[in-house]
Amino acid sequence: MPVIRFIASLLALLAAIFMPSLAAAQVRANHIAAELVAEGPATPGGTVELAFVMKPEEGWHGYWANPGDAGYGMELAWSLPQGWSAGDLTYPVPQTLLISGMMNHVYEGPYAVLVPLSVPAGVPSGTVVPISVEANWLACTDKICVPEQALLAASIKVGPGAPNEPRFDGWRAAVPPLIDQAASFSFGNNKLRIGIPLPSSLEIAAPHLFLSETGLIDYAAPQTFRRNGDMLVAELALAEGADRSAQAISGILKLDDSGNGVSFAGVPGDVPKGGIPLDTGRETVEGLPAFPLLLAMALAGGLLLNIMPCVFPILSLKALSLARAGESEAEARREGLAYTAGVILACLGLGALMLALRAGGAEIGWAFQLQEPGVVAALLVLAVAITANFAGLYELPSLSVSGGGQPMGAFGTGLLAAFVATPCTGPFMAAAMGAALLLPPIEAMLLFAALGLGIALPFLALGFIPALRRRLPRPGKWMNIFRKVMAVPMALTALALLWLCWRLGGSTFAVLALWIAVQIVLIIVTYQRANWRVLAVEVIALAALLVITPREFAPPAAVSESSLIAAKPFSEAALAEARASGKPVFVWFTADWCLTCKVNEGVAIEREETKQAFEKAGVVALVGDWTRRDPAITRFLTARGAGGVPLYLWYPAGGGEPQQLPQVLTPSSLTQLAEGN
Fold first, then answer.
1. Which candidate among 55, 168, 319, 592 keeps its CA 20 to 30 Å from the CA of 613?
2. How many angstroms separate the CA atoms of 253 and 176, rounded?
3. Along the chain (677 residues), what's the average pLDDT of each consecutive run of 10 residues?
């Protein structure tokens, strides 16, 4: 027995020596240090404010009550005397943190979460009451997350006592005040529209709306704000499967990047339409370049688009324009200006239409026109008509691609060139077009104009620089032969558009669209031959086709095409699952109408060497098909600052920020990345 008592005493001594240090080590293990602080003495029957003081380590962050696309807020389990109760938590204005297209509502520096504690009326004055709470929260960096917890305690003195804790003044000031009027909200066009009463004189430098309700909005989607008198109108994209029956909402409106904001509560009601768009700054996409640099990128992107595969379908038009520019100096200048005007007008028109549709709630991006079957069918008709023209079946004086130079013909060629040549994004252009989706309308339109100027720049230079024109061959009979040769690539363009019609609208729709194109060619030939009786029959047949074709539109069921590298369909959930596996992940976004995408797939992606490298490194491949309109892919592209396809992202093994790859891939682009992992 003495031996047992000695061992027990020794163990107790060791515990007394080492347990405090072990406990301290456990506290220090948390990456967010937590402390429970009471403001001061409590009054019987009153309340006392408590504060959870949170101090993240450098590079770590905690979460707001609604964490966004990932994470979770603070969870509490109170141990209180009978009759005591804790109220709701109140947070300061959170910050936005976009990681891999997922929006997080976080705190990256020290912050305090306040909670009122109600004291029963019968507690004797002078009593010191101990309270405790088990707190759980999530601490994260941009690479890892760690669940953390702590048992926090405080002692509350009831009655007169020491002065209040002075830090509460600052903590309370950081909590956004509740506005004195209720906000109104409504649903429409896949948007949640919220009208928040705010004086028009209130400065709003960098707004962002944090909604308390989970699963209602797409957190990563861009938010738009308009001032309508003393009302701020916010438009937020709804999440997939959002419950539109909500009868109340609440949240925080961030006013600037200095931590200022207001809280609001909303009820269903009318939300004003119209108003002045608010310049929200450029915080939606982190690291957005300065506007002059964006203009330069749009100009350079348009210039490089002249040598991108997307431009190949109209090389025939451009080649003939180049050849004809040598006819005379005056004609060359007129045509250069006319061509430039046509290109810029087309880019401005497409840009304005896209911005208007997005403002109306449509989830679209650059090259949206090629996601519409009717537009593709119209382009098919045009391609067939131009092919027949090049082949010599008739003349198209309005386009003036073969005869004497006419400014209207050059203008029409410019319109067509820009319309068909801009479905894909090339180097420099991607960032500019992605920014155009986020900037105020005037700045966005200037970017579209710069893009058009870049596309037209070679032809504008030909018109005004004689030395360049002298390098071109002189006009002659060879041009008629050249025109017939150029009918071949234009015919291939028509076949590609016919295939795209089938992909978008089904086989019957594609056949009827081709029939319409052939019928229009027959009408033009018959008209030029002045055979009016036959022409009348052909016009009636065309009218019947125009009535029947839309009714035969039947999109084929989406079927995952076989991929050499075993790519799975992209979704946010699939990406999250792939990243959670710890393996490297390759994600690419493509479309059947994007020639740049298809060239890259043949050159770098769908290759045996890439397959072997991916299998060896355990790469998970995901593909997003944007051939048809897909709001989820559009939102992801916008969140990444991409206005369209292609987009290639490489997520390294073990987590970390993705690497955005160039839009023109080389055969070794992906194999080198896989071998590096």
1. 592
2. 8
3. 42 40 50 94 92 95 94 92 94 90 91 95 90 94 88 91 85 93 90 93 90 93 87 91 91 92 95 75 51 89 73 55 61 85 92 80 70 86 87 68 60 79 65 76 90 89 82 72 81 86 89 94 90 90 90 69 83 86 92 80 91 93 87 80 83 84 87 85
- Token code pair at residue 444: 């966005």
Contact 267, 184 (CB under 8 A): yes
DSSP string covering 39-86:
-S-B-TTSEEEEEEEEEEPTT-BEEEEEEESS----EEEEE--TT-EE
Q: 153: buried, middle or exposed (CB in 10 Å: 19+, 13-18, 0-12)?
A: exposed
The three-point CA angle 61-64-66 to 5° equals 130
pTM given for the model: 0.56
Q: Report the top-level CATH class of 183-277.
A: mainly beta
Contact of 212 with 89, CB cutoff 8 Å: no
Cα angle value 568/574/578 (rounded, 5°): 90
Tokens found for residue 105? 């509502």
- Local structure of 243: helix, strand or coil: coil
Largest CA distance in the chain: 126
Fold (topology level) of 31-170: Immunoglobulin-like (2.60.40)
- Rounded Cα distance between 319 and 487, Å, is 12
